Amino acid sequence: MRHNIVELKHISKSWGSVKALNTVNLDVRKGEILTLLGPSGCGKSTLMRITAGFETPTSGTVVIAGQDVTQMPPEKRPVNMVFQRYALFPHLDVFDNVAFGLRLKGLPKAEINAQVSAMLKLVQLESLSGRWINEISGGESQRVALARALVNRPSVLLLDEPLAALDLKIRHIMLEELKRIHTETGTTFIYVTHDQDEAMILSDRVVLMNKGAIEQIGTPDEMYGAPKTLFCAKFFGETNILGGHVKSADAKGAVLNLPIGEIEAPVGGLRSGSDIHVSLRPEAASLTEARAGKPGRHDAVPGIVEDVVFIGSRVVYKVRHASGTVLKCQEPRTAAGIRFGVGSHVSLQYDPAAIVVLSG
Ligand code: ADP
Ligand code: MG
């Protein structure tokens, strides 16, 4: 059995002087939810449209299910696309919108009825089957768009920011729904978003894009916990980024010279004297009270609490080091409540495994 359902090879795309994609190589595994994530304008939609066949690449090859489809028109490819704007037919009801593709294929009426009913059940819209498109909500419209795409049984479903027009609460419900529908159909999903939370919730793997190229590919956990570049570290969740240099290094670890002092990191392969950035996640430090005359561990970072923000289950402290650097630290709220007030002297102990060194 083939492992990759889609293979994008050396894909570049330019319009005049605008280079939208620059030598993108990407394999999509059969059955996964893969997310293309990145800021507006980085080339996500262009890559999707090339995969779907709405654009041809300036150079490179698109292979779907083992076949070179680079020159094949969209309707011949085993893919379907769902857009941010649902593009439903306003003069048809919900049922007929979903049935449209099957009628074009000339399937028998009984077959169409059975397949459309099954799809409306899958997206939980059976009761709205006879409604007009202008009589349903945004979330319901997007379910119709999903059903209309999935009824064609595509090998790959392409979803380009399908939830962007919906409000936050409906978006979260729809994300859960998309996961369920993915599990029930087993279809490969390629999902585009600029929202890292959506990508984290939904994806088996995330492809982070930056200026027309792939920055990093990994599971949500890898992207969050082991970013390789500054861009990736900043894109996923909150973090403290500090610039510094490598004081000394060997194969197993390094001593890093940072504004908050020297820190040992169990990261091999760094070059002594080189400039680096470090990402310290807010949850990577444990806070203890700093007592006068009791210096604590040599690698602890001393500071003064400057601000305390209570966010339900979490407490976020902003701690100012003597150098002026402010570090965000976060811990779960315990039964004891908020442990430190503004002005408290604290000591931050970073978990060495959570110190992420980024080159450059
Ligand atoms: P994203 O979906 O990540 O926001 P796009 O793929 O839509 O980004 O666009 C990538 C780049 O290509 C942008 O600079 C955009 O302006 C440009 N672009 C997209 N489509 C066209 C087009 N038809 N003609 C010219 N430039 C385009
Ligand atoms: Mg786009």
Helical fraction: 10-25%
Cα(first) to Cα(last) distance is 41 Å
CATH superfamily of the largest domain: P-loop containing nucleotide triphosphate hydrolases
Beta-strand proportion? 35-45%
Architecture per CATH nomenclature, i.e. the level-2 architecture of the largest domain: 3-Layer(aba) Sandwich
The strand order across the widest sheet is: 6-7-8-3-9-10
The CATH topology of the largest domain is what? Rossmann fold
Radius of gyration: 25 Å
- Counting helices, strands and paired strands, the structural category is alpha+beta
Mean pLDDT: 93
Question: What's the SSE pattern?
Answer: EEEHEEEHHHEHEHEEHHEEEEEEEEEE
**Number of DSSP helices?**
8
In the predicted model, the low-confidence regions spanning at least 5 consecutive residues are none
Report the count of strand segments. 20
Total tally of structural domains = 2
The outline comes out as elongated
Largest sheet: 6 strands, mixed
At the first level of CATH, what is the class of the largest domain? Alpha Beta
Instruction: Name the bound molecules.
Output: adenosine-5'-diphosphate, magnesium ion
